[in-house]
Amino acid sequence: MAEQRFRILLVEDNPGDAFLVRTLLEETGEPFDIEHRSDLASAMAVLNGDGPDAQFDVVLLDLTLPDSSGVTTISRVRSCANTAPVVVLTGHKDEELAFDALQHGAEDYLTKEFPDGRTIRRSIRYAIERSRAERALKESEERYRKLVELAPELISILSGEEIVYINQQGLSILGADDSAALVGRSFMEMVHPSSRETLGEYIVRYRDGYGGRADFTIICQRPDGENVELEVSAIAFTHEGAPAMLMLAEDVTEKRKIERQLVQTSKLAT
Q1: Which of 187, 193, 205, 245 has its CA 20 to 30 A from that of 135?
Q2: pTM here?
Q3: Nearest CA to 7 among 52, 51, 58, 64?
Q4: Exposed/middle/buried for 18, CB within 10 Å: 0-12, 13-18, 19+?
């Protein structure tokens, strides 16, 4: 199997510093391929390009360039199409600047008082692995979000009575055009008076920190006046540090109508 090589974009206007960085990294024996640019404009042109030549595993970025300086340089790099992590490599030994750089999206902040290439190598490796982990997490969250949106049941998160999330099927079941029509409102507003006590009991239960799962049935009223009967499974969990309730509900309106009709038919037959 061919050795995996890591592509580094070195953005450094000082030829001596650029040569030193390249030499130190080569001495580590790591499989790094280094491409050098001496100003921000040419670096951004590469990062905004198409194809494999625009793909880098990490950007080593000086904060003092002919056409840019300071932490805005980081923001400009991170606005490019290529989302490679940024490691700052600068001559400014300034704790406040280092903090600002990290706040603006840099993975690490190194000064040009080079102890040896291992420090740079370690920072590069850390930035790459962290970026990969974050990307994998984001992709996993995106897949989960799509599954929730495509689910055939109503899925909603309640904080107290307030709806903080509801999926597309939930909007359809409750007769809403989009999430803006429901998010932030009390779920209780859509519940038929006959079911409010039932739902209220479980809202209080989860608000007060009682866990577990509960199954119950409620009737909701759509804006068009139609009633929908929901079989609900409620689960307690923590949302943004506060007790919340996850609701999974199936619309059983037609199912219950058919069951009642069968019962009525059976009574008539006897």
Answers
A1: 245
A2: 0.55
A3: 58
A4: buried
